UniProtKB/TrEMBL annotation, chain A:
Membrane topology: Lipid-anchor
Name of the protein this chain belongs to: Ger(X)C family spore germination protein
Keywords associated with the record: Germination, Lipoprotein, Membrane, Palmitate, Signal
NCBIfam families hit by this protein: spore_ger_x_C (TIGR02887)
Domain Spore germination protein N-terminal: 20-188
Gene Ontology BP annotations: spore germination
Keyword DNA repair attributed: no
Signal peptide: 1-21
TrEMBL record, chain B:
Stored Pfam families: Spore_permease (PF03845)
Subcellular location: Membrane
Name assigned to this protein: Endospore germination permease
Superkingdom of the organism of origin: Bacteria
Record InterPro entries: Spore_GerAB (IPR004761)
Transmembrane segments: 15-33, 45-65, 85-109, 115-138, 150-170, 182-208, 220-243, 272-301, 308-328, 340-359
GO cellular component: membrane
Native species: Alkalihalophilus sp. As8PL
Mode of membrane association: Multi-pass membrane protein
Family: Belongs to the amino acid-polyamine-organocation (APC) superfamily. Spore germination protein (SGP) (TC 2.A.3.9) family.
């Protein structure tokens, strides 16, 4: 019995794992970070750290620390020299990458995350218009911590099918895949306001940032990729002459989609066609009249025309940015390998393939009035 | 305690889980990568299924050997088939091989723990804890060990449940078209896959200690083999649809990496939970090798009980695994050992069977009575 007790005591002491303990009081948690490129090619890293000295009744506050280094890791180590305690990135929620930096090679900035077992692979990733650093210093009312604000902003965008659902890990397989390209949330600060707007999508050509998509096109792209999240909204002008102006518009919410992607090679050219059936709920239409069949049919047609327009624009912009977000190359690899093997210079082939979308729209619900 | 000690046999289901636990161990984390890397690319899961087929053939070879030697384990068979001196020599080689597998297990165990969870905990400590726990279990008789292996088999379910989350972000097009890497690559990679299935040589050692007819034993072995093969194929497949083919080459422990990508509401680093489960798996396979190595040593010294040899072997494995080595050395050694393992597990059974058939060697009555005590240890 005594022998067992001694054994148990030994276990208790030995199992506590003294070497690798990290105390919260000694660490400075990074909540969000940003990377920018300096003119001479160095990396400028800014991190937002919540202040430790805020009391219980005070609102939480954060401060931003910036440092420049040759690599991402070096700049972070330099930040570590500026703050008390040990920096810890394990709880990072959002990583922002400045436009200029993203135009070079986005993977170079992310390697540090993939390599460290403690890194936050599930942090959101976004590209910013202009430098990313200032985004961490934006003052937002009701949101003392900009990191939380950014996180909620991106999360809301994901739910509304404005942004693709991503995190640091989810982009990695696509960054390495020759037959697919990454899309990421794109944030910007409007000149007339201080607020951050999150309603665009950044397109990538392999690992390089190569263009943006507006809100409508972005949502359409996600629908074309069959990535509808909780909701997706469109406001469409269906008439010109109504008074007041509001009555010219209908706002619809996408209730469901059916997508079908076919890729074929005909006479040496690759044809990729996306057939998309969009089922929508009308959530605002002051003109009313859904009881009449003709009006509904007409609205269906007008919505359909509009969506077709948007889809055409989206496809054109995708090819202009040389961003294979739909994974046409991957589709070829998977189902028509011989065609793929003849087109391994995919990045030169892709901008010239016949990429088309064919949408069909129907209003399936119109709320509780006609 | 005494009551249990008298029971030196295990049931067929215990046999199955004993072997499963020995097979699933340190290699499971890197298995999808090593099979991928061997040339099969995203068809690696087919290679694993092929490897399972090969193992099944070996199990049938074991069946024929066991038919001739129903109450002897591998070591006694070696002595009987190859004569006293050559037999002893072969036993020694086997024991050395099993010990070196144990060393490799410990080295990989501590290096993965260092990289993933405990960077500053000294190596001797991580290895020491594993060796101590293993010693505590391995010195018991086979039934006690088997019982432990049965209990911890529940953890295999957790492994599968944790990886299911990957299907929320799967891209099935990565593995299509199935078989595009070609038959040759798939067969070549099957070799790498068989190495990850090593551990089934336990069957020929434990058959003699299992209750029931030979048919039920082989049935249990087949079930074990099918289970492990399917689990491995599933894990590899899951990795191949989560990582793109170009990325997997960068991720030597894809299963951990995959689990790390997901976090739940309360749990941030699920990979740590997986690691704890995996540690038990490593322990059970280490105990498996420790047990057969000490059993071989006992027979080498004509002793009946394996327990006194366990601590000595523990000490040897401990010293070897904490001795200085670097990443490249580990890779080299572990490749060498697993190649030797291939010879031991895949070629030896055929040799034994051939010699036994050729010279009409069979379990003689004399060896049955004379060595009875040893074989039932």
């Amino acid at each position: 019995m005594i022998k067992k007790m001694i054994l148990l005591l030994c276990c208790l002491i030995l199992m506590s794992g003294c070497w690798d303990s990290r105390y919260l009081k000694d660490t400075q948690l990074i909540y969000s970070g940003s990377f920018d490129l300096e003119e001479d090619g160095q990396v400028k890293t800014s991190v937002s750290i919540p202040r430790a000295d805020t009391g219980q009744d005070q609102q939480a506050q954060a401060r931003v620390v910036t440092a420049i280094g040759n690599t991402v890791r070096q700049s972070r180590l330099r930040i570590d020299q500026e703050v008390s305690g040990r920096l810890d990135a394990a709880k990072t929620r959002v990583i922002l990458i400045g436009e200029e930096a993203a135009k070079t090679d986005v993977y170079s900035f992310l390697d540090v995350f993939y390599r460290d077992p403690r890194s936050p692979l599930n942090a959101y990733l976004a590209i910013t218009s202009g430098k990313a650093g200032p985004y961490l210093e934006v003052n937002v009312e009701n949101h003392p911590l900009v990191s939380e604000y950014l996180r909620d902003l991106i999360d809301a965008g994901e739910q509304a099918t404005i942004f693709p659902v991503t995190n640091i890990q989810f982009v990695c397989p696509i960054l390495f895949d020759p037959g697919q390209d990454v899309i990421l949330p794109y944030l910007n600060i409007k000149e007339d306001s201080e607020d951050i707007h999150g309603n665009q999508i950044a397109l990538f050509n392999e690992r390089k940032f190569s263009g943006t998509l507006g809100t409508e096109e972005g949502t359409m792209l996600l629908l074309l990729m069959d990535k509808l999240k909780r909701t997706a909204n469109f406001t469409v002008k269906v008439t010109d002459d109504k008074y007041p102006r509001v009555n010219n518009f209908i706002t619809v919410q996408v209730a469901g989609i059916e997508r079908d992607l076919t890729v074929v090679e005909e006479a040496g050219r690759i044809h990729a066609d996306v057939n998309l059936i969009i089922k929508v709920n009308a959530i605002e239409y002051p003109e009313d009249g859904f009881a009449e069949r003709e009006i509904t049919v007409e609205l269906n047609e007008k919505l359909g025309e509009h969506f077709q327009d948007v889809a055409n624009r989206t496809m054109k912009q995708l090819q202009e940015a040389n961003c294979d977000a739909l994974g046409i190359g991957r589709e070829l690899m998977a189902f028509q390998r011989d065609v793929w093997l003849r087109n391994t210079n995919w990045k030169e082939v892709y901008p010239n393939i016949e990429l088309h979308a064919h949408t069909k729209t129907e209003i399936v619900k119109h709320g509780i009035i006609n | 305690m005494n009551n249990q000690n008298q029971k030196n046999t295990i049931t067929p289901s215990q046999l199955a889980l004993f072997v499963i636990q020995t097979q699933v161990g340190v290699g499971v984390l890197s298995m999808p990568f090593s099979v991928f890397d061997a040339g099969a690319k995203t068809d690696g899961w087919i290679s694993i299924l092929l490897a399972g087929l090969v193992v099944q053939i070996i199990i049938f070879v074991y069946m024929f050997i066991s038919k001739r030697y129903p109450t002897s384990n591998l070591y006694l068979i070696l002595e009987s088939v190859f004569g006293k001196w050559l037999g002893k020599f072969l036993i020694l080689i086997h024991v050395v091989y099993f010990i070196s597998v144990g060393v490799i297990i410990l080295i990989l165990f501590s290096s993965i723990l260092t990289v993933w969870a405990f960077p500053s905990t000294p190596q001797f400590f991580k290895v020491g804890i594993a060796v101590f726990t293993a010693w505590y279990l391995a010195k018991e008789n086979v039934r006690v060990i088997a019982r432990f292996h049965v209990i911890v088999s529940v953890l295999l379910v957790i492994v599968i449940l944790l990886t299911v989350t990957a299907f929320t972000h799967a891209e099935f097009r990565y593995v299509l078209p199935i078989g595009h890497t070609g038959i040759t690559n798939i067969i070549l990679s099957a070799k790498a896959a068989t190495l990850s299935l090593l551990g089934f040589e336990l069957f020929i050692i434990l058959f003699a200690k299992t209750e029931g007819t030979l048919k039920t034993k082989v049935k249990a072995a087949t079930i074990a083999n099918v289970t492990v093969t399917l689990i491995y194929a599933y894990l590899a497949f899951t990795c191949y649809i989560f990582f793109s083919p170009e990325e997997i080459g960068l991720v030597p422990e894809p299963i951990l990496y995959l689990i790390k990508s997901f976090s739940f509401i309360v749990l941030e680093r699920t990979d740590l939970i997986f690691l704890t489960v995996w540690m038990v798996s490593v322990l059970t396979s280490f105990v498996g090798y420790l047990y057969i190595a000490s059993l071989g040593t006992a027979i080498l010294f004509n002793k009946t009980n394996h327990s006194p040899f366990v601590w000595g072997i523990c000490l040897i494995t401990f010293l070897f695994s904490v001795s200085p080595h670097n990443v490249l050395r580990i890779g080299e050694i572990s490749e060498l050992i697993s190649n030797i393992g291939g010879v031991f597990s895949f070629i030896f059974p055929f040799v034994i069977l051939a010699v036994a058939l050729l010279f009409k060697r069979k379990e003689s009555n004399e060896s049955k009575t004379g060595k009875k005590g040893v074989s039932s240890t």
